[in-house]
Amino acid sequence: MSELDLDFMRKVASTPRGRGVLSCIQCGRCSSSCPVARLITQHNPRRLMEMVILGLRSEVLPQGLPWYCLSCFTCLDRCPQGGDVGEVMFAIRNLAVKAGNVPAGVVAQARSLMDTGRVVNPVRSILDKRKSLGLVEIAPTGVDDVQKILKRTALDKLIQSR
Amino acid sequence: MKYAFFLGCLIPARELSYETSVREILPALGIEVVDMKGANCCAPFSIQSLDYASWLALAARNLCIAEEMGLNILTLCNDCYESLLMVNNTLKQNPNLKNRVNEILSEVGKEFRGKTEVKHLVDILYEDVGVDKIKNAVKEPLAKLRVATQPGCHLTKPKRLHLGFVKEFGAFDELVMATGAETVGYDRREMCCGGPLRDINDELSRSVARQKLIDIKNADVQGIVTVCPFCFLQFDLGQLEIKRHFKEEYNLPVLHFVELLRMAMGMKLRDWEIKSHRIPITNILKGRS
Amino acid sequence: MTEPAVLVVGGGISGIQASLDLASRGIKVYLVEKSPSIGGRMAQLDKTFPTLDCSICILAPKMIECSHHPNIRLLTYSEVKKISGSAGNFTVKVLRKPRYVDEKKCTGCGICFEHCPVEVPNEFDEKLGMRKAIYMSFPQAVPRVVTVDKENCLECGLCESVCQAEAVDLAQKPEEVNLKVGAIVVAVGFDLFDPSEIPAYGYGRYKNVITALELERLLCASGPTGGHLVRLSDGRIPKKIAFIQCVGSRDIRFGNTYCSSICCKYSAKDAVLVKEHHPDAHVCIFYIDLRAFGRGFQEFINRAKSEFGIKFIRASPGEIIEDPATKNLGIWYEDTVAGRIENLVFDLVVLCPALVPRTDARELAKVFGIEIDKYGFFRASDNITNPVDTTVPGIFACGYCLGPKTGDIPDSIMQGSATAARVAEVLMEG
User: Fold this and answer.
1) CA B63 from centre of chain
2) SS3 (DSSP) at C260
3) Is C212 strand, coil or helix?
4) Structural domain of residue B135, as residue ranges?
């Protein structure tokens, strides 16, 4: 039996991108449009919103639930009430990350970003190939600036702690 | 027309023929691009999932670079497009957020002023160049080539962000048809390719791509035309991954739209470009001559 | 000196009621109607809810009374072009469009349209059936005269040659009439939201996805299929029918954030009618909320479930996919009560679209100088205390052109009577 956090909905709604949860009328248009929901039963955007509304924080934040979304925004486009499910997903993820729940693959991309300024960094062989094909040299990325920004937002600590 | 060129991470690292094709066709169509110096990652969905302020600041830094160049941004990748466009809009519409982001950016000597626009390649080709001009530039129409198009989610959704109907499937399809090819409709065309979960949840990402391939296969086409490099990866390399995991083969060659256009404009693909496709495109090339 | 006459614009049930109430008090009424016949939406319906009365059967007597009443002058196929003056003394310019038929001579016998060689889609049947270039909108039209659609007319003269009453006059000219009235009642009704604005539902692309109004025409004995409910793609009898609620209503994307207030009721009615036509059919209604307030409606829905076996599923479908071979429709939805995502195949899907202001409402509002609300409906001077007064003194409004209220037929009749009372007040001010 999970404990209810009656403040959870308000918390998500006041997190950036999370406001839409206040408009949800649980009509199910999002879930019946979601490509992932058709493949796996664990992922259901309507049910996720329902859990936020009901305050089932412990079933949402620590679980794998927020991490199946493709951010394809089909749900967002079809929602009649401005529920913005696809956006609320990011608010939930931000909160989940703060609670220590983040997949390894996401951390790896963030680490690459911090180290090189890019999420996908060209390996040596690619750089050589580019040169041999006469392609423009990839401009350096301003990684110093990136690191300064990530320090300012404290995201660097999070990445390093994993 | 001149644009600040935002290549993104994926194309220069893994899809070189996309880059070479774009650099060749744009001048021929009267578009000049200037590489953005020191641009960083656009901050795609994985990064956005971590922290809001970081996303805004990272994307805004790129917008500032373009502002300093006095140019609008041209993006190729749908995810880059979505990220930069959303941040540009958000900061333009919300002075509070803009101020907070500028506080962060002051650490790196940048200031967001809201003076640039973010455009996608499809925008430019459809609005600036126009279908008619493209038709005129086509020397070797790809007649009778039946293709399924994958415009990608972030070119057209969320609809309220992508104002007007220029970016509905209609626009991308018109551009493809301008090359002489025939676009064939298929079920669930607006479905995602699964790209955003690549390297995060590969099993799911593969399953989503597989569903797309099943739908496309049912439509009896000779190939798939993509505009987003993630969609390309999901379908091209993805077919090898699906073969390994599901023991299924689809034999659907995948072309970047810019390659299709390039061929139609009479600029042949080089050997290394042809070989860079993991699902061989020889049948499409054969059908041409 | 107050003009002892009233202009009623719009010959639907609401305008008809207002006209009859006023006329019975000895007040002269000019009833102006844009289309060739009065009757409005109610004439298009098969049966009404919750009593399942034949709609035209209860409407026609009122229509006929309008045409015969000594105090009512019907000006059909006419439009209000300009008004000037103020409460008590309005001057109205009405344009009488030429029907190319002399109303006084035409007997409505129908020989002309039997012979006419031109066929065009019939607006009254929501373009599901055809009419001729010379036509009567529907069999019970009032006035019982034909109209020539000059745009599609070949001017072959066949109608003229067979008409026994010599009523055809292809040289007829438009006529401007100036009316002096003391008060005006606007009752122009509504249009339907166009569901093709929701591409995921396939309306306009899939032949077997239709609107509820199109269904009414298919169910109606005077409709394009003679009252036989069949699929538009192949003429077969549908075995599995779905109704989808809130198509465009309660939808922030199109600005219609309101509830249209009659769809839950009429879809239950239509579902029952479908079962009466095809008792073996499987009928499902997909809803978000079931709004069946008022006398008899909840009871009707209970009957629909228990007596007729109609399934109510709490789900707003995400998308509809057509099978190109059978033209059957697969609906993706989540049964929100069971928490299961399903795909069910139907052979006919009926969409219940939002009721929206007419496309010409904005222009009309300008002509009358009345205000419209954020949805485009005519604004009452006060929604609570003066619900049938417009923002211009002396001009009143009734029916759905005022926007969604409870919105059903008794309401429209009540509002018609309400405006008659308000008008009488103006006219009695000497």
Assistant:
1) 18
2) coil
3) helix
4) 131-288
- pLDDT at position A78: 94
Contacts of B188 in chain C (CB under 8 A): 321
Residue C423 tokens, joined: 């008008």
Average pLDDT of every residue of chain A: 92
Q: What distance in Å separates the CA atoms of residue C96 and residue C94, rounded to the nearest whole number? A: 6
User: Is residue B126 in some structural domain?
Assistant: no
Domain annotation covers residue B159: yes
Residue B227 makes CB contacts below 8 A (sequence gap 6+) with B76, B78, B121, B122, B150, B151, B152, B155, B172, B256, B257
Cβ contact B38:B83 at 8 Å: no
Domain closes at, from B87, B121, B155: B121
Q: Which domains does chain A have, with CATH numbers?
A: 8-98 (1.10.1060.10), 104-161 (no CATH)
CB contact under 8 A, B54 and A150: yes
C-beta atoms of B187 and C321 within 8 A: yes
What's the whole-model pTM score?
0.92
Nearest-Cα distance to chain B for C253, in Å, is 8
Do C251 and C164 belong together in one domain? no
Average pLDDT per consecutive 10 residues, chain B (289 residues; last block may be shorter): 94 94 95 93 94 96 96 95 95 96 95 95 92 94 91 87 59 92 88 93 95 93 95 96 95 96 93 94 76
Q: Do C318 and A30 touch (CB under 8 A)?
A: yes
Task: Domain of residue C258: give its range.
Answer: 193-354
Q: Assess A99–B contact: CB distance below 8 Å, yes or no.
A: no
- For chain A, the residue count is 162
CA of C333 vs chain B CAs: smallest distance (Å): 15
